[in-house]
Design a protein that fits this description.
The chain has 7 helices and no strands. The chain is mainly α and about 140 residues long.
């Protein structure tokens, strides 16, 4: 009886990535969609300038487009390892320049998004992705 209760079926780990990929991809799209559609991604430039970031308007557009395009590519599973690199950079900057002095509760989202981006750099897109189709 004990063996039946604690025996976990072996599942290919590549299948789990699709759930993370979709959740993370839609999350990135949700937060960048308005700025891209309304063409106002540069509205964060003043905030970025106050942090000492050079070319704040360009950088504001860069991070919004990174999240927007990254979200789309994650959802379809295309070039996931490659797109994870600018996402990692984005969330490292977000954590160290904006949230490093915050409480854990306030910095958690940046840390979580950084961790997920690193997951995709290491593991790739997994099953049911364009990357998997192109590998065959």
């Amino acid at each position: 009886m004990k063996n039946i209760l604690f025996k976990v079926p072996r599942i290919n780990p590549g299948y789990g990535a699709i759930f993370i990929r979709l959740a993370f991809g839609f999350h990135l799209l949700f937060y960048s969609w308005g700025s891209v559609i309304q063409f106002n991604a540069g509205s964060n430039a003043e905030f970025l300038s106050s942090l000492g970031i050079p070319f704040p308007t360009v950088m504001s557009w860069a991070y919004v487009l990174t999240e927007f395009i990254g979200g789309i590519l994650l959802i379809i599973g295309f070039k996931v390892r490659l797109v994870s690199i600018p996402l990692i950079i984005t969330f490292l900057v977000a954590y160290f320049l904006v949230h490093a002095g915050d409480s854990y509760e306030n910095s958690f989202q940046a840390l979580q998004m950084l961790a997920v981006s690193i997951f995709f750099l290491v593991n790739g897109a997994g099953k049911f992705s364009v990357d998997q189709i192109l590998e065959k």
